[in-house]
């Protein structure tokens, strides 16, 4: 028997509320701890999902749940009744299935519970959403030692109902990674839990609310192995000193420690790490000031060059720019450097928001915050692309300079083993081969014309090197990229850069997150968006007094063109166009005219996309086509990439009999 979606949602909510009421999380934790201890004493084999379910049944947990859960068999109510009785709660249509995993008794786990939020005063006046009403939502993202999680979206409120539990594995590094981490080992793990809170509005637009680093090691000194934390979240950018809300957290270790550390030991370790980090940062600052003074003495004009050594992150913390770049390997999520460039270009462009007018505020984001928000400025795109290209084994650098009208800008360059220099535009994935101009050549010698949009270059850097351009002219077309030539490039000490920018060098560096698999199901998303576009097109024609007759075969043929367009964006090579043209010629009868209009988007909002399409006179001509035997077609292809990035291609087409 199948239930309508609204009843299924109501049923899930009833079960969810009942489980919370009977403290099912606490009972499951007790059984889990007991089972893990038992298995650890009897051979230390891996605890499977089946073993855990048997343990729950033996304790009578499952029986108690079913016994206390009652449903009334009321089938006579109307649809309006069901709407009135349904829970006032946001419904996430994109809930991903939870993946089961084996819990090893040889591993230590940190169970982090989010028990709701409070004091989100910006949302104090927001009314409680009505059933089925679309509303703004909060989503909490977590990253800890190469593990990433996200919560279900909940409606924005002064006290958001963020009720989630995350099981984080605390593992050793190096050859002892297979052994269970003891208290001393965990005390030496300074990686924080990076928590990023994202707000998604009703149109799907995301906003970074807070980026918080939780030092979880206080649980090591808790007498019961459990501790509660009230995490005060601060804003970002110009509001980085203003509290935006509080999250109630509970931390617990599994299996519990046989012997807890003294709270003083934990506090002392944290204090020593802070002192060590502060000393390293102080020494680097002293070195950077001396290096900068030497650079200014080379030529007075260097004072105005864009040589950026430090940049502020979303929390207002000044960090060396080299720390924003990491060697990032995408596993099997991305297959080539060009596909990586395509992925980065699909992340939307947005400057850091600022209250009031004035000069543009520059804000570099940590990689985790950038990926969770799914958009950022040119600096965020460039550092992510450089990190991915380094992961693919290329000699990549972030370039800081200007483009047209002297607008500050960043892009990426790679150095080939043959000395070739390639510029990568992170917003578009375009590549430009650098052909320098020889200023000493005779006037009659033809000089190459630059194809790139970049004007000046102040410095280049990656995760290990920082070099400032000290050539007489900082014009990009005149630059010689011989980094071994000290008369053209002034390099910072690689040892000094490594002391504050290498992974694990200081406890203040945000950890590097792995990329997540695509969160969009491309086939389902394509079908849904195509249905919505068909509806909007038909309604638009209806308002004009025009009938709409679809040609499904023609719609299907358009897929080949959309696939070829996306392949061209990835590889720079257009292929498959001949087959598409031949298929269209066969589908369009003699005496008929065919028109097609492809367009590309970074979002899946049908109404926004359709409004944008109608701004094109050519598209409007197709949508509003009048004539004899008019047949319309629309095809949508959503190409999924890591994270929430997707390339959306839409093509409108029509064929009609030509009448003179």
Automatic annotation (TrEMBL):
Q: Is Cytoplasm among this UniProt entry's keywords?
A: yes
Q: What is the lineage of its organism?
A: Eukaryota, Metazoa, Chordata, Craniata, Vertebrata
UniProt source species: Cyprinus carpio carpio
Classification via PANTHER family? CENTROSOMAL PROTEIN OF 76 KDA
Kindly list the places in or outside the cell where this protein is found, as annotated in its UniProt entry.
Cytoplasm, Cytoskeleton, Microtubule organizing center, Centrosome, Centriole
Query: Which terms in the GO cellular component ontology are assigned?
Result: centriole
Keyword annotations of the record: Cytoplasm, Cytoskeleton
Which residue numbers delimit the CEP76/DRC7 peptidase-like domain? 362-492
Give the family, as the similarity comment puts it. Answer: Belongs to the CEP76 family.
Q: What does this protein do?
A: Centrosomal protein involved in regulation of centriole duplication. Required to limit centriole duplication to once per cell cycle by preventing centriole reduplication.
The record places domain Centrosomal protein of 76 kDa C-terminal at 521-657
What domain of life does the UniProt record list for this protein's source? Eukaryota
Q: Which Pfam families match?
A: CEP76-C2 (PF15627), CEP76_C (PF24652), CEP76_N (PF24654), CEPT76_peptidase (PF24656)
Q: Which GO terms describe its biological process?
A: regulation of centriole replication
Question: CEP76 C2 domain location, by residue?
Answer: 102-257
Protein name per its UniProtKB record: Centrosomal protein of 76 kDa
Q: Which residues form the CEP76 N-terminal domain?
A: 10-69
């Amino acid at each position: 028997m199948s239930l309508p979606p609204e009843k299924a949602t109501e049923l899930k909510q009833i079960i969810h509320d009942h489980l919370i009421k009977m403290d099912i999380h606490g009972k499951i934790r007790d059984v889990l701890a007991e089972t893990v201890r038992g298995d650890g004493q009897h051979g230390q084999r891996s605890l499977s999902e089946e073993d855990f379910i048997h343990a729950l049944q033996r304790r009578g947990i499952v029986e108690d749940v079913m016994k206390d859960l009652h449903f009334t068999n009321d089938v006579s109510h109307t649809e309006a009744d069901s709407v009135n009785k349904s829970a006032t709660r946001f419904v996430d249509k994109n809930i991903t299935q939870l993946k089961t995993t084996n819990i090893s008794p040889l591993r230590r786990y940190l169970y982090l519970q989010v028990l709701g939020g409070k004091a989100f005063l910006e949302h104090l006046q927001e009314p409680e959403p009505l059933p089925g009403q679309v509303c703004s939502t909060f989503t909490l993202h977590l990253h800890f030692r190469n593990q990433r999680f996200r919560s279900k979206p909940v409606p924005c409120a002064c006290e958001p109902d963020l009720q989630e539990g995350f099981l984080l594995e605390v593992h050793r590094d190096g050859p002892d990674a297979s052994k269970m981490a003891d208290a001393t080992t965990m005390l030496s793990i300074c990686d924080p839990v990076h928590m990023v809170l994202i707000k998604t509005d009703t149109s799907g637009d995301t906003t970074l609310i807070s980026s918080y680093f939780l030092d979880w090691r206080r649980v090591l000194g808790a007498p019961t192995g459990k501790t509660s934390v009230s995490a005060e979240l601060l804003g970002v950018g110009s509001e980085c000193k203003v509290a935006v809300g509080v999250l109630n957290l509970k931390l617990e270790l599994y299996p519990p420690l046989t012997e807890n550390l003294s709270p003083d030991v934990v506090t002392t370790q944290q204090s020593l790490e802070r002192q060590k980090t502060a000393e390293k940062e102080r020494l680097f600052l002293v070195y950077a000031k001396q290096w900068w003074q030497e650079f200014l003495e080379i030529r007075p004009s260097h004072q105005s060059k864009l040589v950026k050594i430090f940049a502020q992150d979303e929390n207002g913390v000044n960090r060396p720019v080299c720390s924003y770049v990491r060697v990032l390997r995408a596993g099997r999520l991305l297959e080539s450097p060009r596909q990586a460039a395509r992925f980065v270009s699909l992340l939307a462009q947005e400057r850091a928001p600022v209250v009031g007018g004035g000069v543009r505020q520059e804000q570099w984001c940590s990689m985790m915050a950038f990926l969770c928000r799914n958009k950022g400025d040119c600096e965020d795109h460039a550092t992510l692309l450089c990190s991915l290209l380094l992961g693919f084994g290329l000699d990549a650098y972030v370039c800081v300079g200007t483009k047209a009208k002297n607008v500050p800008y960043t892009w990426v360059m790679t150095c080939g083993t043959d000395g070739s220099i390639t510029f990568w535009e992170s917003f578009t994935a375009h590549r430009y081969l650098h052909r320098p101009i020889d200023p000493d050549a005779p006037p009659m010698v033809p000089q190459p014309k630059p194809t790139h949009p970049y004007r000046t270059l102040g410095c280049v850097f990656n995760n290990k090197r920082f070099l400032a351009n000290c050539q007489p002219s900082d014009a990009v077309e005149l630059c010689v990229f011989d980094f071994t030539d000290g008369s053209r490039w002034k390099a910072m000490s690689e040892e000094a850069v490594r002391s504050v920018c290498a992974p694990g060098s200081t406890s203040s560096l945000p950890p590097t997150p792995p990329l997540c698999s695509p969160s969009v199901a491309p086939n389902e998303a394509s079908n849904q968006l195509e249905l919505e576009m068909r509806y909007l097109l038909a309604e638009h024609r209806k308002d004009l007094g025009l009938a709409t007759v679809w040609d499904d075969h023609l719609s299907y043929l358009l897929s080949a063109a959309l696939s070829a367009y996306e392949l061209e964006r990835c590889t720079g090579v257009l292929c498959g166009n001949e087959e598409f043209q031949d298929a269209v010629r066969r589908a369009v009868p003699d005496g008929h005219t065919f028109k097609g209009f492809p367009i590309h988007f970074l979002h899946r909002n049908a109404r926004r996309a359709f409004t944008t399409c109608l701004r094109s006179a050519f598209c409007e001509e197709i949508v509003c086509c009048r004539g004899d035997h008019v047949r319309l077609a629309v095809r949508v292809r959503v190409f999924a990439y890591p994270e929430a990035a997707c390339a959306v291609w839409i093509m409108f087409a029509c064929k009609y009999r030509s009448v003179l």
